[in-house]
Amino acid sequence: MAKMNDKNEVLELLNKVKEGKVSPQDALFSLQKAPFEDLGYAKIDYHRGLRQGIAEVIYGQHKTPEQILGIVSHMISNGLGNILITRISPQVADFLKANNIDIDYHSDAALGVVSPVKKEGVGLVVIASAGTSDISVSEEAALTAETLGSKVERIYDVGVSGLHRLLAHMEILTKARAIVAVAGMEGALSSVIGGLVSCPVIAVPTSVGYGASFGGLAPLLAMLNSCAAGVSVVNIDNGFGAGFLANRINQQVGSGK
Fold it and tell me: Where are the alpha helices (DSSP H) in the chain?
């Protein structure tokens, strides 16, 4: 039997035990198979999907192309698809393609999806960026949420220097189950959105800005000190973390949890 990588597979196995199609001993053996694989330079967590509902995501920055290829190859051989790899260069994506890895690469987000599986998005997550310079982080958030199964709407370049641009999108903002607000400079966008909507707002400070923004520290502190209730904050430039959290909120609202 293959490794049990997600909840649906475990449920199917348990139903087979109930129906007498699989013995309890065989089921136990399947569940006891190593929940991770040690490659020396990485330990692949095959039970991440079982615990969290989503397979392990690969953080690509500072890994060699060979290391990423090794991790991805083992994940594929164990039946995993829709594998997210964040922070990789076009050269790494080309290296993976040259080694017969099926990958959709998005250069604007420096993100790749290996063995992509098309999903019809559910609910609604809105990604709002203050400026065009914030789009790379915004796209990391948007593509993460989309890959994990959320319907995503993008509203870009709607920062507070021209507030009417944001207000023109009030209809879609009020329909969202979660909103990701991405901003550098003074980071005011999340507070403004937080004061306009009833859903959770996830603020992402970016390293965009002049010297006194201190590489994103100024918008980070501004977002942490937001006067609007219902605003949470992730780390500087962490579009992936925001997209992941927004998807989780969106999916749980849809399931009635």
Answer: 7-19, 24-32, 48-52, 65-77, 90-98, 135-147, 163-167, 170-175, 189-194, 217-224, 239-255
Number of residues written out for the chain: 257
Rg for the chain (alpha carbons), in Å? 20
Beta-carbon count within 10 A of 56 CB: 21
Do the beta carbons of residue 114 and residue 101 sit within 8 Å?
yes
Query: Does pLDDT of 247 surpass 80?
Result: yes
Per-residue pLDDT tens digits for 16-62? 888 888 888 777 666 656 677 788 999 888 878 777 778 889 999 99
DSSP per position, 147-175: HTTEEEEEE-S--GGGHHHHHTTHHHHHH
Which of 178, 176, 181, 206 shows the shortest CA–CA distance to 191? 181
Q: What angle do CA 10, 47, 40 make, to 5 degrees?
A: 145
